[in-house]
Amino acid sequence: MTSTMHAAHLAALRADRDRLWGHLAQVMRETSPTSTRALLGGAAYQGACDRYQAARKESA
After folding, report:
1. 29 within 8 A of 21, measured Cβ to Cβ
2. I want to staple 44 with a disulfide (CB 3.0 to 4.6 A). Which of 9, 20, 22, 40 is the partner?
3. 45 with 37: CB under 8 angstroms?
4. Interatomic CA distance for residues 38 and 48, integer angstroms
5. What's the confidence (pLDDT) of residue 46?
């Protein structure tokens, strides 16, 4: 894989990651914290909360 192909692949992965985090943020806004925690599990829920808060700070 050339460096250009590698960079394009990484950019696509980042876009997918950002799209998934956006979807998760929407789910977190629309559901209760208890439901989201049950869906994700404790550690994943905390990580998602941290990421969501960081994204809110970046967009402000």
Report:
1. no
2. 40
3. yes
4. 13
5. 77
Burial per residue of 24-47, b for 16 or more beta-carbon CB atoms within 10 angstroms, e otherwise: bbeebeeeeeeebbeebeeeebee
Helix pair 33-40, 3-30: axis angle to 10 deg = 140
Cβ neighbors of 31 (< 8 A, separation 6 or more) are: 39
Domain ranges of the chain: 18-59
pLDDT < 70 regions, the chain: 1, 36, 42, 60
Q: What is the pLDDT of residue 60?
A: 64
SS3 31: coil
Query: What pLDDT is stored for residue 1 in this prediction?
Result: 64
Range 28-34, long-range pairs (CB < 8 A, 24+ positions): 28/52
